[in-house]
Design goal:
- By secondary structure, the chain is α+β, with helices and mostly antiparallel strands.
- Helix content is about 20%, strand content about 35%.
- The chain is built from 1 helix and 4 strands.
- It has a 4-stranded mixed beta sheet with strand order 1-2-4-3, covered by helices on one side.
- A hairpin with a 4-residue loop joins strand 3 and strand 4.
């Protein structure tokens, strides 16, 4: 599962080092760093994916879990 939370600067942990699986889930902090979020979305779009449906909210972590979906070309 990919976690989008804060921007490390030296290494972008939200950008997977290999192709992303459509069955993967993503955890996004409710106040995630915009740079990290944008970087991850660029990688998703290159692979023809986008954030899909909301799955669950984790109140202690203050994070939302989402599925991935194929990019809507319409």
């Amino acid at each position: 599962m990919t976690t989008i939370n804060y921007y490390t600067g030296a290494y972008q942990s939200a950008i997977p080092q290999s192709e992303i699986n459509i069955r993967s889930h993503v955890l996004i902090h409710e106040s995630a760093d915009a740079r990290e979020y944008d970087d991850f979305n660029r990688v998703l779009k290159k692979q023809g994916l986008e954030l899909g449906d909301f799955v669950k909210y984790y109140p202690r972590k203050k994070m939302n879990q989402y599925t991935l979906a194929t990019l809507d070309k319409g």
